[in-house]
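Q: How do we represent a protein-ligand complex in a form that can be generated token by token?
A: Start from the inputs.
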Amino acid sequence: MNDSNNASVIGGKSFTAVAINCAAKAGEWITTKLGNYSSLELKHSAHDLVTEVDKGSERLIRNLVATHFPDHSFLGEEGVEPGPEASAQALEEAKDAEYLWIVDPIDGTTNFVHSFPFFCVSIALAYRGEVIVGVVYDPVRDELFVAEKGKGAYVHGKRMKVSGEATLRESLIATGLPADHHYALPLNLKGVTAIAPQVRNLRIAGSAALHMAYVAAGRLSGFWEIGLNSWDLAAGALLIQESGGVVTDTKGEPYTLAVRNVAASNGHLHNELVQALEHAGAQA
Ligand code: IPD
Ligand code: CA
Ligand code: CA
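Then emit the structure tokens for the protein with calcium ion bound:
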């Protein structure tokens, strides 16, 4: 992650350095707005929130990326119409771009709105559809999770490694309660009912990207959720892969940018997790 030995350097600034700079600047600004935002709107449903801080964070990141890499494409949550169809369509249109920045300006907006300190900025860069840089920044704890394809993943400058639990019985697993209450939430609740009795415990803390970063850091054994978007997952997926873990869809198919139903783990208990979801009819 050093500029001098990084192949991905343009105009003196590596892709990773720009991603880190964007996440740090956005995160710092977001924390000044904690408990202090002024506009709250609903998006696709009464459970899908957006504030002026989400929009401002995305604008800041978009402008900074454009300053360094004006030819790159940009896919940010707040630049896309709400709802799963529009998200899938936006990804479809953008995914063949040579360089595509995929950004969730605040992952965990409900937490941010309630001053529950578990949210992050998630920034990924994909080259021809493959994620090559992933940065997740938790501004409350000042924790920066960084991965580069083929070069490992780091937090606080220390190499991350997934946890060693080999079975669901000894695992700590996280999931989410999706804003889409028609399709995704009932399926996820089916999974919760089936998985909770099989694991050491479940956590549902409200930020998919941060849960993924925690799997990479070995703080969680695994994570699954139905109905996510590319910007929730892209950075976290690379963090986990570069930390020795496994990311697939809930049916066990390999991760791509188009995956919306994710199963991520330390690898050791991956099949057991996917099978448990299958038995529960909770794979989507
Ligand atoms: C949400 C969070 C949450 C997950 C939802 C996501 P947002 O993202 O990641 O944990 O359960 O499915 O939509 O709206 O806060 O960016
Ligand atoms: Ca999100
Ligand atoms: Ca968001």
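Residues 3-159 form a domain with the Fructose-1,6-Bisphosphatase; Chain A, domain 1 fold (CATH 3.30.540.10). Residues 104, 107-109, 176-179, 206-208, 225, 228, 232 surround D-MYO-inositol-1-phosphate (ligand 1) (CB under 6 Å).
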